[in-house]
Design goal:
The structure is a single chain. The N and C termini lie far apart (about 30 Å). The chain has one domain: Hypothetical protein af1432. About 30% of the residues are buried. With about 160 residues, the protein is mainly alpha-helical. Helix 6 crosses helix 8 and helix 8 runs antiparallel to helix 9. The longest helix has 18 residues. It is about 60% helix and about 0% strand. The protein binds fe (ii) ion (FE2). The site of fe (ii) ion has 6 residues, from loops.
């Protein structure tokens, strides 16, 4: 709900059409729809390219597959949902907005003041804010000796090459 509300506010600030605003809100409502499901039950239902993803990231692609099976063919929306936890080079405005909203929604108790300052720059500075979030997450991953996802690195490269 909070992610959807944030996306709806951003879409209105950008004067997007009613349909486009509804689409932004829908991505917020839907992206975590299967987060409470058992990830190992979701794994067989999603394409093999997600096979090496850790359990906590499988709900995105699982929602995408469910929506696709129900006749949703909106590729931008489907990619935004599939990659909301990790990012992807293909994400454009909607995908970037969902990635940011999921990270910046006010219910998160992580780097609260920093998130507040990032929210204040949205949606006007969508690309810069997205780039800063990806930088923070990649830095955290490296600092803690964790594995980087190729999707996140691809997202970073797409963001800096598009400047
Ligand atoms: Fe999620």
């Amino acid at each position: 709900m909070r992610v959807s509300l944030l996306l709806g506010n951003w879409a209105e600030s950008l004067h997007l059409s009613e349909i486009e605003t509804a689409r932004w809100r829908a991505s917020g409502y839907l992206h975590d729809a299967l987060r409470e499901d058992d990830p190992e039950a979701l794994r067989p239902k999603i394409p093999s390219r997600f096979g090496n993803w850790p359990p906590e990231m499988l709900h995105g692609p699982a929602v995408t597959e469910k929506l696709r099976s129900e006749g949703i063919l909106d590729d931008e929306l489907l990619s935004a949902i599939a990659y909301h936890s990790v990012g992807h080079k293909s994400l454009n405005r909607l995908g970037r907005a969902l990635y940011c909203a999921d990270f910046l929604e006010p219910g998160r108790m992580f780097r609260v003041e920093w998130c507040e300052s990032m929210r204040a720059r949205m949606p006007e500075e969508l690309n810069n804010v997205t780039t800063e979030i990806v930088a923070a997450r990649i830095s955290y991953t490296i600092k803690h000796g964790l594995e980087l996802y190729s999707e996140s690195v691809g997202f970073w490269n797409a963001l800096v090459n598009g400047r």
